[in-house]
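> forwarded from #structure-qc
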């Protein structure tokens, strides 16, 4: 995994965690969707642009959309939009469950912005 991150300690820490998660032997482990959420959102917050991480996370997140809150959906979509990492199957699952998430106006605006950044309608 090649990682591009900022120089602060948080970015270094997240970059190291991302490298560990992307190791092939780690990919066989069962990881809860909430951990994938935390990894992707932390990567976005610390500017750790690792496409392999997002590619590994997307199917796991897509299978768990029905368990997410509106806030989870917003933060996950925003993290993918930060780096323009588009995963159509994840976005389609998000869009399918959004009506039942009870989104606030702010969450709707944020999701609309993320979807636009990812060229997803």
């Amino acid at each position: 995994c090649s990682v591009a991150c900022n120089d602060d300690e948080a970015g270094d820490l997240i970059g190291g965690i991302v490298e560990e998660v992307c190791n092939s032997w780690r990919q066989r482990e069962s990881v809860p969707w909430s951990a994938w959420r935390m990894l992707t959102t932390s990567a976005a917050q610390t500017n750790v642009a690792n496409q392999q991480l997002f590619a590994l996370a997307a199917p796991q997140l897509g299978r768990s959309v029905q368990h997410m809150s509106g806030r989870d959906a917003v933060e996950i979509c925003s993290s993918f939009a930060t780096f323009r990492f588009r995963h159509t199957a994840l976005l389609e699952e998000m869009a399918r469950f959004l009506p039942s998430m009870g989104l606030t106006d702010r969450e709707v605006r944020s999701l609309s912005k993320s979807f636009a950044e990812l060229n997803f309608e």
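QC bot note: The helical segments are 9-22, 33-45, 51-62, 70-82, 88-97, 105-117. The radius of gyration is 14 Å.
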